[in-house]
Specification:
With 210 residues, this protein is mostly helical. Helices cover 63% and strands 0% of the residues. Helix 1 packs across helix 2, helix 1 crosses helix 4 and helix 8 packs antiparallel against helix 9. The chain is elongated.
Length: 210
């Protein structure tokens, strides 16, 4: 769902349109957001918007991406738990903040009924985050910190799923302490068996006679 970009597109009008979409969505909610309302607030005609965007969700997505810069890069300190703590806390602090979180939540909800929007969210935002996470997970697997038989996609779901559940279902973004607890718990369970603190002895060791 990339916006249509004719050669002579007026950048000033485009900025006014996405700004109007963000403002109105905050004021009236996504359900009451309309192309007519966006056009009136931006001072343009509806046809101007439809020449560049196919729907209100496409306008809002452009607006969201214009004000939300997410650093998808991962630190690699050698400590995978510390690195995921840092990255997830920083990313959620940006994505779920009050001026962007409601817009993102609205688009996620709309994407359940709009496959084109779902693809746009994936291509333009989510895939960048998961690609960086995948690389960090694979690095940890090579170092023996995460079981090598696990697909990175599964690890991502286990790490990020609870964070999204807390935000979308409980409607309360997880704080840093809760994120750290999620990361610690998940990665402890995904470590190779012989590296866990409670792992039984291996090799030729035998229990001492009583």
């Amino acid at each position: 769902m990339s916006p249509r970009r004719p050669e002579r597109r007026s950048e000033e009008s485009a900025r006014a349109i996405v700004r109007a979409a963000l403002e109105l969505c905050r004021e009236v909610g996504y359900g009451k957001l309309s192309i007519e309302g966006i056009a009136a607030r931006a001072g343009v005609g509806k046809n101007t918007i439809y020449r560049w965007w196919p729907s209100k969700s496409a306008v809002l997505l452009d607006g969201l991406l214009s004000v939300m810069t997410v650093d998808a890069s991962f630190p690699d300190s050698g400590d995978v738990t510390a690195d995921f703590r840092t990255q997830i806390t920083a990313a959620t602090g940006t994505i779920f903040r009050p001026d962007t979180g409601p817009h993102y939540a609205a688009l996620i909800g709309e994407a359940q009924q709009d496959p084109e929007l779902a693809r746009a969210l994936w291509d333009r935002l989510i895939s960048h985050l998961t690609s960086a996470a995948t690389q960090r997970i694979q690095s940890a697997q090579r170092r023996g910190q995460i079981r090598p038989d696990l697909a990175p996609d599964l690890v991502i779901e286990l790490l990020y799923g609870p964070v999204y559940y807390h935000w979308l279902i409980r409607q309360q973004p997880a704080d840093a302490d809760h994120i750290h607890m999620i990361v610690d718990t998940v990665l402890a369970g995904l470590a190779p068996a012989n590296t866990r603190p409670d792992a039984p002895p291996t090799g030729n060791s035998r229990p001492h006679p009583q």
